[in-house]
Structures are given as C-alpha cells and as structure tokens.
Amino acid sequence: MSTLTIEATRSGLVESFHTVSVAVVDTEGTLVAQAGDPHRVTYWRSAAKPFQTMPMVRDGAAEHYGFGARELALACGSHSSEPMHRALAASMLRACGCEEHQLACGPHPPLSQAVADEAMRAGVILTPRWSNCSGKHAGLLALARHHGWDTQGYERAGHPVQERVLDEVMRWTGQSRDALKLGVDGCRAVCFGLSLRAMATAYARLGVSPEPAARQLREAMVTHPELVAGTGRPCTDLMAAARGAVVAKVGAEGVYCAAIPEVGLGLALKVEDGDGRCSPPALLAVLRQVGEQRGLSLPVAELRQHAEPVLRTTRGEPIGELRATGALRFH
Amino acid sequence: MSTLTIEATRSGLVESFHTVSVAVVDTEGTLVAQAGDPHRVTYWRSAAKPFQTMPMVRDGAAEHYGFGARELALACGSHSSEPMHRALAASMLRACGCEEHQLACGPHPPLSQAVADEAMRAGVILTPRWSNCSGKHAGLLALARHHGWDTQGYERAGHPVQERVLDEVMRWTGQSRDALKLGVDGCRAVCFGLSLRAMATAYARLGVSPEPAARQLREAMVTHPELVAGTGRPCTDLMAAARGAVVAKVGAEGVYCAAIPEVGLGLALKVEDGDGRCSPPALLAVLRQVGEQRGLSLPVAELRQHAEPVLRTTRGEPIGELRATGALRFH
C-alpha cells in the first residue's frame, strides 16, 4: 500500500508522525492516484461549504439579495474573523432581513491567533458572526428567506434548507441518501460522512462544471481567496499564488479538498488523526506529486511556509519542521 | 501486533483515530505488557522532569535552599501558571539568589485555558516564570548555584548542569550516553530521545527505589499533585484520586509515563501523532488494563472526564468523545 506521512522533527529526530489517506479522481470518480485508504469514510466538515452554498446560488437567493463574488467566497470559506469577514457576514444578514442572533453557529476563538489575541486583549465578547462559519450560515439563512421557509432550525437535519443542501451534496458526490452519514458539525449545521473518493469526485466536477452556479462559486473562491480563509492562511495563500489553477478548501479534523480544473482532477485527503497543522503540508505534497506527474506548474515551491512549517521553541528559535514523506500511487 | 487506539467520534461515526505505542516494564526493564511498538524512540520531554530534578535533591541543593515537598513537586511538574505556581517558582528563584530573567524558558500561553484567558483579558505580559517548566528551570539554576557553576547557559548540552542531568538520566533509564539522542525542548533545555521501554524502566525504578532522593520526589508528586499540573488537569486529578498508588507525569507531543509502586511496574506511552488530547485517555486505558490483570484497585472509573473526554459543538452540546479501543498484550 502506498503511504503518505507527515513527520514532525525535533533536533533531527522524528518525534511524531501523522498518516494521511488520499484520493485523487477524475470527474467520473475514477481513482487516478491514492495513498493510504482512498475509500476512508469521514466527515467532510467545512470542505463541503461550496456545496452547502450551491443551493443559494442555483435557487436565485444570491442574485435576489445582491450577493456577488465576495459574499459567495465568504459563504464557501472558513474565515479568520478579521474585521472584513465580520463586516461582510453582518451585511449578508442585513441583506436578507436577518439578525445575528438567528445564526445557529456558536462563537469560538478566531482561527487567526493574532485576531484571537487582539479580541481577548480588547475584552470583546465573541458573538456568532465571529464564527469562521458565519458566511455559510448567513447564506443558509438567505436561502430560507428566499424560499419563504421558517428560519428557525435551519441548521438541523430535516429542515427544508438542509434537505435542499443534502440534494446538492448527493448530486455532486454521486452518493445516495443512504450512503451519506449525517452528523452535527461544530457549528451545529448538518455535516456529511462520506468517502474521500466521493469528496474528491465533487471537487473534480466543481472545477470544470459548465453550470453557472459552479462557475460562479469557483471563480468567487479564486478571485477572493482572502475571504475563503484569511491573512497568511493556507487556502488563501495557495489560491492567491495559483491564480485559478487550484480551488482549495480546508475542513476540520485534518481534511483538505481541492480541484485542479486544467486536468479535470479533484482530490481529498484526511490526516487520519485529525491534526489541522498537518493537512496543509499534506495538500501541498499531493499537489506537487500530481503536478509533476501531469506536467503542471502548481505553486508549491513558493509556499514553503505551509509545505514545511517550522516548529519553534518558546523563544522562537527553529527546532524542527513538519515534512511530508512517501509517494502517491498513480494508476 | 497488539494495538491501542484512541478514536474521536462525532454523531456516532469515528471521525479521526490515534495510534498509541505502549511499554509496561518491571524494574529490570523486562516487558510485561505492550501495544504498538514498545521500542519506539521519541523524546521524553516533560515526562523526564523527575529525573532532571533528581540531581538537585541528590547533590544537596534542595536541602541547602530549603526546598520541601512543594518545591520538589513544582520542579517535577508542568504547571498551569496558576498564581500558586508562579509564586512558588518565584520563591525558588529568590531562595537560590537568582532572578526571573535568568530562566532560559520562554513564556507561552498557560496550559490552563482559564488562566490563559484571564491573563489575556488582564493584559498581562507573559514572562518566563509563567512557563509550565519554570519550576524545573528554577531547580536547575539552584543546582548550578549550589555547585558554584556559572548559571549562564545552564539549559544547553555540555553545561555542567546538563552533564549532571544526563548522568542521572543514564542511571535511571539504563541507557548509555551513545544510546541517548539529545535534542532541544520547547523550553530550550536539553531533552532526551530514547525508547518507551527505557522511559518505562526509569519510572518502574522511581516508583520503588529505596534511595532517599527518589522517595522524596515521588512522595512530593503524590502529596502535592496540584503543583505537578493544576486545577482539573489529568496528572493532578489522577494522583489525587490514586492516593499514592500511581506516580504520573505527562510529556509534550503525546507522551505519558507512570509508576505503579505496589507492583513495581513502570509504563510509558506515546500517541504516535503527538496529540496531547489523547494521552490521558490512553494512560487511563493502560492503567485500567494493568489494574485488571494484576487485581489492583486503580482510580479509573471515577476519572471519566479524562478517560472519555466529551467533544462539543461551539455552543457546548455534546457531539462525540475520545475513547480507547484495543488491548495490551501481556507477556
């Protein structure tokens, strides 16, 4: 079996290691490359956001409320709670006649340490729009409003919003309703348990689909990568450097998904232990190997801070790194 | 091969999993039970603190500076930066005529989230005595002072303080100098790379050794568990509940070590990916299995919050748990 591992080194010794499973597929879902168990079932978490946002675009809610590329990027994103992110989430809520207390997501320390430190120092009470998922949730509320559905309980399985999202997830992943395991995400919305291969299939399709909604969403993400994550974060830096060659979205617990539209491929990976430090190095290792195999020029070398993050002592001296070892098996 | 795994569940599905290696040995270092690779080499990190503190006791520095059980417990501990911890570290420094700026350890966000939040809200500038390792470092400075060694560079390999610590680590682990890999810890002191079996051997010996210094240190740890970690932390709660039946110390990157003096056993485990959330459930699973096999009454059932920590949404609803599966192989 082919393996991909992220090693954490300290003073030249491998102190810890992380096993990664990977599926790289074409738009038919045929495995093109793999590592570990490409059929591994886990939750898609935030890497599902483009597909959770798709109904809002396809059903006309985005157009109705005047949401452009910036709003779509935020809805597909896991933002860092920077002022621009919070302001945009608030304006999406206003546009569809909702208020912050209607967001079902709970607050959490901002994903950006700098933003988190600043908020704590300023004594800010974190509210739901600070959630990294507030763009997605604002989009789901807009969908409910546009259809005239009750906004109450929009995050829960069985609500028309979630039924509509579920249909879309089935359509892009090619999975039946029975094959999808429904769970509850950290932000309390429904999350979807499915195989890496199925996640990758959805991304392969997202990358090349001629459907207007798919085109709008992927263009929003690559045009406004700063709204999909935030300053210095891997999704943002990768999509900014790739200039449309990669559409990428991280998920919680070590999941990362991406599309490479030029070759019609999609990929999904899972750091088996869920370590979010390790999914960016894993993604960049996969992109490097696929790029080499297909003769693509993907921006991996210039993203060294994400491909091989430096580990430091409490005084900031470099002491080791995270680094990928192992090779995908290409079919 | 026998395996021990910590599973992270969400809505009834295993979302992530963590592989654990374990060595359980007697005082001769003979394997009594194992899981994964008991010969796995990794860094001992903070689980080495009792042995890093041993020279201070054996060489008379502790007695000279009036350090009793409380100071010894703090020196063996990775404290939560609670006021009692910071005050005691400061008083140890004063006793040996040192000042805070001489501590080589850098500050870091307190291990207790409550203490970290409070410090951030209060706008506190974190200084070295806030480091979870400040007790150990104060002890190393006391050792240098007592011997009349230069305190400058006490944390680095080759300094007489670290040579003395290295001798002690060799003595308790039974490892030659060549077999020990020296690295730099997060707190900048020397850390030691060695096998889980060797770490476990040192703990088995610490638990039953008739040497006065070993007895003083283990009694300090079990008498003042609140100084070895802090409010609500696993080392503290376990040793408080075990009433001397277990001497336990966590290390960074998923290491946990313990002694069970009643049966002369020591154990060391490593969550292979280094996840510190998972080492307490792993330790309690190992203690439960060893306890059952040896007919011991160890306090595992009453520590459910550490044995099976609940995972929650951002609004605090329970959504899953960490739980151990798999069995040790007993010889």
UniProtKB/TrEMBL annotation, chains A, B:
<dbReference type="InterPro" id="IPR010349">
    <property type="entry name" value="Asparaginase_II"/>
</dbReference>
<dbReference type="Pfam" id="PF06089">
    <property type="entry name" value="Asparaginase_II"/>
</dbReference>
<protein>
    <submittedName>
        <fullName>Asparaginase</fullName>
    </submittedName>
</protein>
